[in-house]
Design a protein that fits this description.
- By secondary structure, this protein is mainly α.
- The chain folds into two domains: about 130 residues, Four Helix Bundle (Hemerythrin (Met), subunit A), CATH 1.20.120; about 60 residues, no CATH class.
- It contains ten helices and three strands.
- A three-stranded mixed beta sheet has the order 2-1-3.
- Strand 1 and strand 2 form a beta hairpin.
- Helix 3 runs antiparallel to helix 7.
- The chain is globular.
Length: about 200
């Protein structure tokens, strides 16, 4: 995907997440998301923070607090932001939806799949149907399959062949075949487990 298309998808997904978050009551924002250990409001805060991410100094302080664990750093920053008095995540998501600012430690390819997956982390537990753009989901799945850390998809899914049923895409060469829509396969690649009914073995 070219950068213009990628940024357009990111913007559209941020706006959808804002609309979705606005449509639910406060107690629903505290429900668990698909991302283990993260509430719906934490996931929304993480997405909202991406285009207004702190600089290297603040990241270093956060990394020290998190004892160098990147996932804990991300989680702690999101929880703190989601819990700040007066924080309006819906307004932030809309205000920065078209921002092209990238956090210091990532890339557009990573922001694209990260945004796609996190929107599903919120939508699915809330019972909302929201399809990923297929071209973006393919691009994201290719990226996650290649990247190794932090998902280690090739290692975790060793012995499996993943085959999309809605687009020409397949990876892996193991004896066990897992079939499903490309968006469900992207969720599987990023470690989401509450999607079994969308995949066939």
């Amino acid at each position: 995907m070219d950068p213009e298309r990628s940024w357009l998808v990111v913007e559209q997904e941020r706006r959808y997440l804002a609309d979705l978050l606005e449509s639910v009551d406060e107690p629903d924002r505290d429900r668990p998301s698909l991302c283990e250990g993260w509430r719906i409001r934490d996931v929304a805060a993480h997405v909202a923070l991406a285009p207004q991410h702190p600089g290297p100094g603040a990241m270093l302080v956060g990394a020290v607090r998190a004892l160098g664990r990147f996932n804990k750093l991300n989680h702690d920053m999101a929880v703190r932001h989601a819990s700040r008095p007066g924080t309006d995540l819906v307004a932030e998501l809309r205000a920065h939806a078209d921002s092209r600012r990238l956090p210091v430690v990532t890339s557009l390819d990573n922001i694209l799949f990260d945004t796609l997956v996190h929107v599903q982390d919120v939508a699915i537990p809330l019972g909302r149907q929201h399809s990923m753009p297929v071209d973006a989901a393919v691009h994201g799945a290719d990226r996650v399959w290649r990247m190794g850390w932090p998902f280690h998809a090739k290692r975790r899914l060793a012995g499996c062949r993943l085959v999309a049923t809605d687009v020409r895409w397949r990876v892996g060469d193991g004896p066990e075949e897992i079939r499903g829509p490309i968006e469900a396969l992207l969720l599987l690649l990023t470690g989401r487990t509450a999607i079994g009914d969308r995949l066939r073995r």
